[in-house]
Amino acid sequence: MGAKAKKALKKKLKKTSSSQLSISRSRNESSDFLPLEGGPGMKITQEEDEPIKNMATVLYIGHIPHGFYEEQMEGFFKQFGKIKRLRIARNRKTGKSKHYGFLEFENPEVAKVVADEIHNYLLFEHNLQIHLIPPERVHPKLWRGVNWRYKPLNWTEIARKQHNKDRTVEEQQQMIRGIQKRDKKRRNRIKAAGIDYECPDLIGLVQPAAKKIKFDEEDDE
């Protein structure tokens, strides 16, 4: 054999030995146990069989009956655990309940128990709908105004002040034009219906002209 052939054989031997060493190392690293029947070791695959821990603490509560408001809801749900926040959706104009709300417990396990056990609970002829909300789906403005209590407005008093307020001449004329326009529409509807009826004239639409008072001039003596 020539010198070139010897060098080529040495290179091949080095490659095969290095590959065998790497295979044996990988087998030793991957062999966590040896089977009873012999053979290469097998690695135990550690799969994530552990269930994901529930971290949701916010509950959606739907079908809330009339009369079951913040105080009553807090008194009912605090028997399960400590309540962190509570909010019922209300109409901004009237302050009436929209029959759904949100509740947050401090302990996620308590929230899960409530969602599982109180869901479809019959209360005042309403089945409560309770669902867990994942933390990533909780809106940042969900608890906006949670401690705010709505005070209903006295719309009768507001309408009275609006009607009796002091008006300028232009505002008074604009109001009269609106009354005349609505009266004309009403007369047209009555006429279109085939009803022979003469609507009485509105009182106060014609404003009397201002009288000019002349004073007798007294001659200065």
Automatic annotation (TrEMBL):
InterPro entries annotated for this entry? Nucleotide-bd_a/b_plait_sf (IPR012677), RBD_domain_sf (IPR035979), RRM_dom (IPR000504)
Entry's Gene Ontology cellular component terms: nucleolus
Q: What are the subcellular locations of this protein?
A: Nucleus, Nucleolus
Q: Organism classification, top ranks?
A: Eukaryota, Viridiplantae, Streptophyta, Embryophyta, Tracheophyta
Asked if Phosphoprotein is a keyword of the record, the answer is: no
Chief site of localization: nucleus
Q: Which organism is it from?
A: Musa troglodytarum
**Source organism, top-level taxon:** Eukaryota
Q: Where is this region: Disordered?
A: 1-40
Name of the protein in question? RRM domain-containing protein
